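Forum: Protein Structure Q&A
Topic: Joint prediction for protein chains with partners

I've read a bunch of threads here and the consensus seems to be that you should model interacting components together rather than docking separate models afterwards. I'd like to see that in practice. Below is the full input, 445 residues plus whatever partners are listed. Could one of the regulars post the assembled result?
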Amino acid sequence: MSPTPAKPGGTRIPSRRTVLRGAFTAAVVTGTAGALLPLLDRDPAAAARPEPAPGPGSGSRATTEEFAEMYRGREIRGTATVVVPAGAPAGDRAAVAAEPVTEIRIDGRPLHVMRRADGTYLSDVRHYESYPTLLETARAAVDELGTARLAPPAAHHM
Amino acid sequence: MYTRKNQRDLTRTEKRRLIDAILKLKRSGRYDDFVVMHREYYVMDTERRPRPAHMTSSFFPWHRQYLLEFEKALQRFDAGVSVPYWDWTQDNRTTSSLWAEDFLGGNGRPGDRRVTTGPFAYAEGNWSVGRGVTDEHYLTRNFGRPGSAPVSLPTRNDLARALKDPVYDTAPWNSVSTEGFRNRVEGWGIRGVRAVGLHNRVHQWVGGPMAGAASPEDPVFWLHHSFIDLLWDRWRKAHPKSAYLPGRKPASPGPDRDYVFGLDEAMPPWGVTPRKLLDHGKIYRYA
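Posted by a regular:
Agreed with the consensus. Here's the joint model:
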C-alpha cells in the first residue's frame, strides 16, 4: 500500500517507502515493548498470551495504512501494521488483525496512539475523541498541539 | 459533612482559599501524582485488562472516589475547602467568572495558546505542566477549538436527553454502548449514532491539557468532574428504581464483563466498590 495521497490541508512528502518501512519496523518493536511492560507486570494473563513473533518466516506482515505528509507546517508520518502469525487458525487470525501495531510521528517524535473497541484511534494529545484513520488522528493531534511539540520519547511514559 | 457549591456562587474568599490549597498541593508534588493516577487508570476498551475509569460502567464511581481523594488532599492544607462544580450548560461563556483573573484564569492567548491570566499562568511561577505529553511547561487552553472542527459546550437539552435514559449502563459496558446513562454522559462519539457529547465534549472545548491524556493538569478538570458527579445524583433521583449496572456475575454477562466493575467489585487503586459510593450523603452534599 502506498502512502496516503495528499488531501486538502496536507502536502504529500515524496515516499522513501522501503527505507521508511525498515525504520518504522524497528521503532514499532521498541515502542511496543516499552508500552507493554507495565501491562505485563499487572496482568499475568496477558503475559501468558502468545506473542505475535514478527521474525522472518514466522508470519506475514501487512501494512493497512501508511502516510507521510506536511500538515500545517508539521511533518506527520504513520503506519498501521497487522501481523498474522504463520499457521494461525482462522479465529486467531481475526483476533490478531483486530489490534494492529500503530506508529505516528510528528516532527520525528512519537505520538502515543490507542484504539477503541470500534476500531477508531485516539492519541495522548486528543484523548476524548477518536478517528477512523491514523492520518486523521495525526492531523487532529497537530491541531490540538498548536505550536507545542510532543515530549521527547523518554518522557512519554510517566 | 461539607458542601460542594456551584462555582458561580463562591465568594471571593472561598475562591482564594481553594486556589491557595491547590497551589500548595502542587508545590508538595502530590498534585502531579493525581495527574499520573488518572493517566494510569485510563485504560482503553481494546486492552485486555481491567478498566476502572473510562470507557466503562464505573466511570461515575471511580471518578467520585478520585475526587474525594483529591478533596481530602486539599483539605490537609485547608479543612474548609471543597471542589465546586462548573455547570457548563449555564456558565458557557468565555467571559464567565470561572475564567476570571481571581479564579482559574482565562483562555490561552493567540499563537501559542498560553494562559497568561490568573493563578495558573506560567509567569506567576506556581504552575507548570507537561507530564509526558508535550514539551511545553506552560498551561494552554483553546476554548471552543476555533478552526476546522470547532466545539461548543453541551446544552441543557443535551443534558436532559442523557438524564432521561432510565438504564444506568448497557453491554458491552464500553465506549460503544449506545444506550444507557453512563455512556451518554461520558460522551463517546459512536458512528451513525451520535457525536462526541457531554463529558468528553467539555474536555475538547477547553483544549490544551484538558483535551489530552494528562487532563487533570488543568485545575478546571476537578470542577468539571464535580458537575459530572452531581449528574449521577440527579439521574439517581430521577430514576430511583434503576440500579447500578452491571450487577452480579453471571447475571450481567457479556464479552467485556471481565474487565468492568460490577456493583460489588472493588476498584483499583483504592479497593472500593461502586456500591460503597452510591450514596455520599454522609460525606458531602451539593448546593
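Chain A has one domain: 10-42+57-151.
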